[in-house]
Structure formats: structure tokens, C-alpha cells
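WARN retry 2 of 3 for item q-0093 after timeout on previous attempt; input resubmitted unchanged.
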Amino acid sequence: MEKSSSHAGGAALVTGASSGIGIEIARLLAEQGYDLVLTGRDTGALARVADEIRADHSVQVATVTKDLSQPGAVQELVADIAAQEIAVEILVNNAGLGVTGPLAETDADATAQMIVVNIGALTELTQRLLPGMLERRRGRILNVGSVVGYQPGGPGMAAYFATKSYVLALSRALSRELSGSGVTVTTVSPGPVKTAFGERSGMNATRIERLVKPMAAKTVARAAVRGLLAGRRTVLPGILAKVLAFAGELPPRWIALEVNRFMFSK
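OK item q-0093 returned
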């Protein structure tokens, strides 16, 4: 894969790049001149996105079909990228799954798969690509979290809330670890977003989705990329996300638990 003239040092790897926030982030990075590696589970959708971006921008776009919930998928993805001699300068950990409903009533396999993608794949991919960034003393990591990561918990979506709290905690600590290294870590934590994720996860049936107008994926992506390129540690797109993040960390935290139980139930 030839490097574009704008960013000859490396490419941007975007997971979950075939729809929603992922595709919008990919488009924006292409506008900035970054070559792309797009990965997701749907080969056809990835190919369509890649063709669209190539037609609109003078960048190179590679696609790698991977289901990050499967054993060994992250290691295979990193090996595929290395075999093409692509240096990843920007890592966008966007792939994610959601499960709604009381823990005792939801499918255990679906919950386990969500934990693998939201926590395991994000962590492993970051850990495997980070040494190269540190060696080059240049790199940016964007973790797509959620405003629920700032909350004490979410009765009715207990495991999902916990995965996003992990993303936020990991990102904060890693950002401090990497201070002065030339590598930055940015976490974008949006509130409700209008994407297919809401339908797949069941979130679009919850009260909060009926009471609050979801943000457009493009709006979230624009804020995320702006924060990423500026080296910001946290991005909270929109007033609602900022209010929810602030309120979620206020004592007494049991109040937030009761509010979340109401807002995230059907």
C-alpha cells in the first residue's frame, strides 16, 4: 500500500468502520490526507465504504475483514497489517457491542461477546500497536467510549455500562503513562447517537432514546477527530454529554443509579 503525500509516516486504522461513527471518522481522516485501514465484520460494506472514500479523496484505503469477538482475531489483524508494511499512526478503537436488559435475563454468550469486543479487543489492539508508535515517537489513539462510562452503573444495562467505565479508566491511565512520549490518547464519550448500534443493542427502545434526540454520527465524529488531532484527553460532544458526565460523578451516587435504572429501561 503506497503512502499518501500528506501523511507519509503512517495510516489510520479504524475498527467498526463500515457504519455509524466509524465510517464518519474514516471519512474525516481521509479529508485530512490519512491513508486508511478499515476493519469490520461485513466484507461487502467495507468494500463499499473503501470505494466511496477512494473516489472522494486522494488516499489509499485497505480493508481487512475481521470479527474482533473471535479468538486470535486481533493478532491476525495486526499480522495482516504488518504483512502489508503499513505503519499505524492513528488507531481508532470504535468497534463495540451492546446488550440491554437485566443481567439475569440476557443471553450470557452475547454478554461475553460484548466484553471481548468492548474491553478485550480494544486493549489488545492498543497494546500490540503501541510499541511501534513509541518507537517512532509519534501516534494517536482514539477510544470511542460513552457518556455512561462516567456513571456509577446502569441497572438494566449493567455489563454495558461497566465496559464503558473500563474504556474511560484505561484511557485516562494510559494517557498519563504516555505523557511526553509523542503518543496521545483521546476518549470520546457521546450520549445517545443515531446509528444502527442502537437498534442492534436494543438501546433505541429505552426511555432515554425516546426522551432525548440522538446526535448525528457525523457530529460526534467531527468532535472526536478534532479532539484527536488536537491531542485532547477527553471529548464530550454536546451539552447533554457534558451534563450527564458531570452529574454521574456527583455524590450521592445512588441517585444516579436510580435515574439510570429509569432512563435505560424500556
